[in-house]
Amino acid sequence: MSNFTLFQRDDCHLCDQALDVLAAAHFPDFSSVFIDDDEALEARYGARVPVLQRSDGVELDWPFDVGSLRELLL
Fold it and tell me: What's the pLDDT score for residue 1?
């Protein structure tokens, strides 16, 4: 199980950008959850996606960069 979850949407250009930043940061494995068909997740994250969540519940909203990702790993 991953320590991080990326909440995202299908066909989301910001989500694609977030994935590029995660790749550039050589971020460790994370799971992806698509909120499109989940009313509860849609209500919680809606326009906030992409959102990266650590297993302890700490969330990092977009826009994030390599530096903020490294801080999240600490």
Answer: 61
